[in-house]
Design brief:
With 339 residues, this protein is of the alpha/beta class. It has a five-stranded mixed sheet with strand order 3-2-1-4-5, with helices on both faces. β6 and β7 form a beta hairpin. α5 packs antiparallel against α8. The relative contact order is 0.19. 5'-O-[(R)-(carboxyoxy)(hydroxy)phosphoryl]adenosine (KG4) binds next to α5 and α6.
Amino acid sequence: MLIMAVESSCDETAVAIVEDGRKVLVDKIASQADMHALYGGVVPEIASRKHVEVISQLAEEALREANVKRADLDAVAVTYAPGLIGAVLVGVNFAKSVAYALGIPLIPVHHVRGHIASNYIAFPELKPPFLALAISGGNTLIVDVRDYTDMKIIGATRDDAAGECFDKAARVLGLPYPGGAPMDALAKDGVAGTYDLPRAHVSGSEFDMSFSGLKTAVVNMAHNAQQVGKELDKASLALDFTNAVSDMLVPRTIAAAEKCGRTVIVAAGGVAANSIIRAHLQEACEKKRVTLYIPPLCLCGDNGAMIGCQGYYEYLAGKRAGTDLNACATLEIAEEYQV
Ligand code: KG4
């Protein structure tokens, strides 16, 4: 079964052609990050306009490179939630047009389900059930993946997402947007324990997380240093910051897997590219004899292939949308699209 998959929830326009869920024929990504870097973060209106500019051409290129004709497509899968509403709408409307014009099914896909599915592409042997840690620019979730389309949230951030926190901390350290990768590189020269940063606990909710206090602590440190004319040891601050994020993510994920009786953990999303978090997850999983899957860096960030993969399993589960499909800025991963 050949699926064209469309992703436009933030600042990457992506179109992939995926066969039977796990075979990626082509995965085209047009990133707008350089444009948003001029403003220090994503400007939603610019994101929507850039998606409109490139999406049709990207789809044409995807078909050409995959050597697939329009008539060969069996379905179109699209991210319809969550994300920047104007940005998501561009992909949704494009996918609707393709489905309508070709008379093929339209499959709505939750963006974070897609991130988790990138592991199915990287690891052909992987099957649910497992415990997933989904960490990206807009979402931070611990999810019990009971089946391909049956998920339960075990823990979530109460405020900022982990990626958002990386981006804000990077900005005050003078690093370019998106800040996660530059922070990762900078942290390599740091000395751990130079700065004392908070680790938040959500009272009465052992698996929930909070990153806003950590973000504020870094922002305050940078501003205070500036006011008194003191030089910050940026590399050590980046390292201590990353260790603090990791301390909030890794033990909760391991404990959640134990609670849910899962012996397999998968990580997903842009922040799963972080070398320190990857190493800490690996170490913790080895200690507990839990199998860990983390996608290669090219599948951690937003891409179309993951939407085509999850779209296939949503299709098998009978999920279809009509031309009245709307985009949603927020939607829980466990919630089903209502026709
Ligand atoms: O998954 P993604 O591409 O987009 C969303 O769905 O949000 O994630 C983007 C986020 C950004 O916040 C970016 O700074 C972060 O992932 N990121 C990283 C790294 N690479 C990307 N964060 C920490 N370390 C990295 N190496």
